[in-house]
Structures are given as structure tokens and as C-alpha cells.
Amino acid sequence: MDTVLRGLGLLESPRWHAGRLWVADWTAGLIRSIDAAGRVEVVVEHRSLPLCFDFLPGSAGPEALLLTSSAQRAVLRLSADGTLSRYADLVPLSPHGPNDIVIDGRGNAYVNNVNFDFAAGPPAGEPAPGVVALVTEGTARVVADDLAFPNGMAVTADNSTLIVAESYRHRLTAFDIGADGSLSNRRVWADLGAHSPDGICLDRDGAAWYADVGDRCCVRVRHGGEVLDRVQLDRGAFACMLGGDDRATLYVVAAHWPGPQRLADHTEWDGTVLAVPAPVPGAGWPGG
User: Fold this and answer.
1) Where in the numbering of this chain does the SMP-30/Gluconolactonase/LRE-like region domain appear (predicted)?
2) DSSP for 138-164?
3) Which of 12, 73, 121, 175 has a 20 to 30 A CA-CA distance from 45?
4) Domains of the chain by range and CATH?
5) Is 151 among the annotated ligand-binding positions?
6) 198 assigned binding-site residue
7) Annotated catalytic sites, by residue?
């Protein structure tokens, strides 16, 4: 296991794009890119908790980047000159800010929302408040609900299936993706026991990697939940991404988690980017 970068804040959204690794530092309000020589560049400055991002297909330039802005309750797009513009308004969908985003090979952006005040805790009862929205330029609509803290998401290489990490239900949940981007046929893709999945990615064998903050690990599971591989860490794993030019490196972003009540004032994150050789290269989206 190699350490790529350390000493940062709460890290999320590792992505491989244009030959670089990109990560979001939530507590610093920054998106950074890291090249093969380890040089770090600040690409975006935007204060938002959460602050997640992904890339539209077909472009290697910065204008491919979309980010979720909790501060503006919107999806924003990065321009070539480094400014951010509104890509889609999310205000009508929820009084709370969005969480994660994944963009499939057709350019459909899926954005989820836990839909409650994280620091205060979820409302009692069923159904769960979390939702997934389908976002295209200028439009956003809810395409799935009753999700218990939707977190990381991934889309299979054939654009046919969206997998959502439901942290509070300890499982990965799958949906069929329709021709219009709508979601149907909800089902449990993998029951993870007591684990609470955060960021996820997929590989060419059809397995999923998920990051787990509480258990300080990344785990690779087959459809159905069989554990295939495990990477143990000394701090919480927030997300993972199969990247590199051959997509055969598992990049993990990890930090010391103090609990939701300390999110605003905690300083000893020591956010770290780690690289581990993967047994099977990545596939699908988030992609490379």
C-alpha cells in the first residue's frame, strides 16, 4: 500500500480523469488533481459540505467536471476559465443539500440526497427520506426514493444498472436504468452485514468495492455479498476508485472520523490518499 498524499482534510470523490487522480477535500472546500509525478494542483475552490463531483463523458478538459453544491442546492459545471456556472437547480427537490454524484456513459448524472440534517440525525419511521435524482443540463427529477442514507453510486459499463450504497441499511441496492434514464426494478445487490458502505466502484469481473468509515476498510464483494478481498486501514475509508491508465490501482481516500457532531470543528483529519494494486481492473462509472 502506497501513500500518495496526506495531511489533508475530509476527503471524498476520488476520480481518475485525463491521466490524473482527482479528489475533493470537503473541509478545505477544494478539488485537487494529482499527476503521475505527485504534483498537486488546486482545480476548484468551492465551500460546500458535501462537495462531490464527476466528469461528463467525451471531454478531457476541465469543462467536463460537474459538482454537487450543498451551499447552492445545485449541480454546478466548471468552465475552462475556472469559473462555476449552474448546470441544474436542485432546490425544488429537497430542502437539504445534495450528496454524491455519478455520471454514466450517456451523460446522465445521478445525484443523491440523504434528505435530512446529518448532524441532527434521521427522522424516525419508514420510508427512509433519501432520494436519487436524474440530472441533465437544466433539468432534475427524482427517480428513486425510500433510500436510507444514499452514499456512493456506480453504473455498470453497459449503462444498464445503477448501484447505490445505502449506508443505514448496510447494503448495496441496484436499479435498472431505462432508455430515458429512469430507474426501476429495485433490488438488493449485496447485503453487507453490519458494514455501512460509503463510496463505491466496480470492476471488470462485476464485483464492487466499497469503503467503510466505521470499520476502517475497503471491501470487494461479489453480487450477492460474498467477500472477495479486503484492505484494512488505520482510519475511516470514505471512498474508493479503480484508476490509473490501466484502471488496475485501487485509490482510497481516508481520514480520522470524529462523528457527525464534530464535522464542523474537527481539525485532526490527516486526510490521506492511498494506492493499492487491484486484483481486477475497473469498469463502468465512475470511470477513467
Assistant:
1) 12-256
2) TEEEEEEEEESSEEEEEE-TTS-EEEE
3) 121
4) 2-283 (2.120.10.30)
5) yes
6) yes
7) 198
